[in-house]
Amino acid sequence: MVLDLLITGGEVIDGSGSPARSADVGVRDGRLLLLPAGSGGSAATVVDAGGLVVTPGFIDVHTHSDLLAGDDEQREMLRLAPLRQGVTTEICGNCGISPFPVPAMHAETVRDLVAATFGPPASTYVSFAEFAAAQGSARRNHLAALVGHGTLRAAVVGFAQRRATADELRRMCTLLDEALTAGAAGLSTGLIYSPGVNAGTDEVIALARVAAAHGKPYVTHLRDEMSQVESALEEAIEIATAAGAALQISHHKTAGRGSWGATVRTLARLEQARADGLDVLCDVYPYTAGSTALHALLPPWVIADGVPAMLTAVREATVRDRIRTDLASGLPGWENTVGNGGWDLIRVASAPTSPDVEGRTIADLAAARGADPVDCVCDLLAAEAGNVTILSHSMREDDVRRVLASPLAMLCSDGVPKPGRPHPRWAGSFARVLGHYVRDVGLLSLTEAVHKMTGMPARRFGLAERGLLADGYAADLVVLDPAQTADGATYDDPLAPPHGVRYVVVGGRVVVDGDRVTDARPGRVLAVADREPAPPRQT
Fold it and tell me: How far apart are alpha carbons 21 and 39 in whole angstroms?
């Protein structure tokens, strides 16, 4: 038998959590064949992996790359960043924002939301099928896509600060059901962001029931990850329990000075919920800084009438005074990032027409201009049409390590691929775990880390025949040097490539060969099949 690709002499870590073993890995017609070490055989391409480790392709369970549009050189560099680390599949549509399903009559409303959060150009699609077709043959790695609750709400209810009517909720459920039937991977919420912040728990339960009927997870950016993180976690558990859905807590953290150390309690709560029968897991990125849109730091009423109205409102002195008051005192049910941290922890990552402010904190910018920070923020939002991304240095290292080490946690980047100075997690998360937290710190074994990057997320999101090195599985794999693997990305140089990743294979084709990215583009949008719904929990 002649193979397309043969990788010989390496140690295989198969993604299941089993110990490493010596084996050769063959690829034929995009599928894997595991062979005894040194068994020989002929292949069109042979890779000598002596001294190296062969793993399944990494699965990043939380990205926003479905919203990365445009074809300029910098955007192409952004697309390559996860691939160079070995990420062969990304789960996108997180935090309640996806570019589908958007009925044509509401496309402008959702495009405004996407553009203000992730930057122009912004595209939306009527259906999952249209979204998948639009990716064409341009991708090097695969995407699986969640349906965003914020997108559903923007398309049906808009940004209004009110509960959905019964008819509106039925329409959202219908759109969700159609997308899940077509192959979307689950439901996501971003309950700190408009318009999702306006939804009550009952609305989310109704939508999560639709996901549960397809055997697909409810994936949530909690309503609060700061001072009220524990009550927000209880809401997520309530939603998943009532809906009968599997629960995925996105980028789990306890941010802001008032919640540092709370991962001791939140992880214990997740373990108890799992012991009680709830299928709950979480994901985490290996950094103490987060990243989001600048307008997300403002009270939700600022964007209640949509993005164009927000851009008009932030120019008004009375609006700025009200923002200052709410930041000082807080609002019920709103995660007050600035109130829980301070403007000195907020750094501008991307401001396309004002590159001189990138890398500087809001506190520093305000001081340099002799202005109040709220005025500085509002001026910046108005100048950039809302398209400003920030970094928030709001977490503590012991909390990050505690979540990383949890058997309930898998790895993510939460990559927001925007030009400027994006968070280094987009280009560094997976290599950072393998280098810093596995080899240098010893927080995890290499086998444990690979499982969190491969077999565990594939099982969670129903990615059939992926996540393991096993006969007949899709030939997505990574060859790396465990002694050299490390992240190159920093806050000052956020797209610097990693070290030690020798080969990346997607669909049986080599897409990364040493320092070179090949022209192969075998990536596609994966349609995730329905699974058996979980049996009802006994109460």
Answer: 14
CA proximity to 528, closest of 435, 444, 462, 454: 462
Q: How far apart are CA 54 and CA 10, in angstroms?
A: 6
pLDDT band at 459 (very low <50, low <70, confident <90, very high): very high
List the structure tokens of 62: 């939380």
Distance CA 419, CA 349 (A): 9
The two structure tokens encoding residue 348:
């501008």
Instruction: Give me 494's structure tokens.
Output: 């956020």
Quick one: which of 193, 202, 130 has its CA closest to 173? 202
Express each pLDDT in 411-450 by its tens digit. Answer: 999 988 877 788 999 999 999 999 999 999 999 999 999 9
CA dist 526 and 523 (Å) reads 9
Q: Quick count: other Cβ atoms within 10 Å of Cβ 518?
A: 12
Q: How far is CA 363 from the centre of its chain?
A: 28
Check: CB of residue 7 under 8 Å from CB of residue 479.
Answer: yes
Does residue 299 surpass a pLDDT of 60? yes
Taken in order 316, 320, 321, 326, is the CA torsion positive or negative?
A: positive
pTM: 0.94
The neighbour count for residue 441, using CB atoms within 10 Å, is 12
